[in-house]
Specification:
Elements: H1 3-17, E1 21-24, H2 30-33, E2 46-50, H3 57-65, H4 70-75, E3 78-81, E4 98-100, E5 109-112, H5 115-125, H6 135-148, E6 153-156, E7 163-166, H7 173-182, H8 185-188
Parallel strand pairs: 1-5, 2-3
Antiparallel strand pairs: 1-2, 4-5, 6-7
Helix pairs in contact: 1-3
Length: 206
């Protein structure tokens, strides 16, 4: 998916639901902060979205521009309507949302996750595709964190020795406790206490 395609989804979702703000929380939300993100991060053809307006908007989006819809068949990409609590996100994530609003988004405004908040959501999901540590994907993710230009802290994934680094400003005890409480058992094994111990760097391969 490319940035203009995400903007098209935002425009379509706004037109269907009547909502003025479309929140993008899936992997393609990276296009909000980084319109020219590396292609390794843009392989998905779906954008996970919801609105603050009404939880039932997710069903409306799925039925109208979701997978298998005429929209999908025509353009080759689609929206996936999700619940607002689908992703485990750190405190303050709403304050860091990246606005996508231009002529291509029509009456809607996209609100995309900030890159570090997206990383937390992916770690918490714990799916193989979310923890892709192939060389190409590692380079791409490293580029994202370098571009964001923020101090970071390290969270180690138990599957191997690769480290994903997240901003120290978000390394609060509250966010650590929430991750431990809410995420899948395999993700609870992450050494989240590293949030409070390590500082610096971006993503580093094993």
């Amino acid at each position: 998916m490319q940035r203009p395609q995400l903007e098209h989804i935002i425009r379509a979702a706004a037109g269907i639901t009547g909502a003025t703000e479309i929140v993008v929380i899936g992997s393609q939300s990276v296009l909000g902060q980084f319109p020219d993100a590396p292609t390794e991060l843009l392989v998905s053809i779906e954008a996970d979205v919801f609105t603050f307006r009404d939880p039932t908007d997710a069903e409306l989006i799925d039925g109208s521009i979701g997978e298998g819809s005429p929209f999908h068949q025509t353009f080759g990409y689609y929206a996936h309507g999700v619940a607002a609590d689908t992703a485990v996100l750190p405190p303050g994530w709403k304050d860091r949302l990246i606005r996508v609003e231009n002529a291509n988004t029509g009456s809607g405004c996209g609100l995309c996750l900030e890159a570090h908040d997206l990383a937390v959501a992916k770690l918490a999901a714990g799916r193989v595709k979310d923890l892709d540590l192939s060389p190409g994907c590692c380079v791409a993710k490293s580029w994202i964190f370098r571009q964001s230009g923020r101090a970071s802290v390290s969270v180690r994934c138990p599957r191997n020795t690769s480290r994903l680094r997240l901003p120290a400003s978000r390394a609060s005890a509250e966010s650590t406790q929430r991750l431990r409480r809410d995420v899948a058992p395999e993700v609870r094994a992450f050494k989240l206490d590293a949030f409070h111990r390590s500082v610096g760097g971006s993503l580093r391969g094993a």
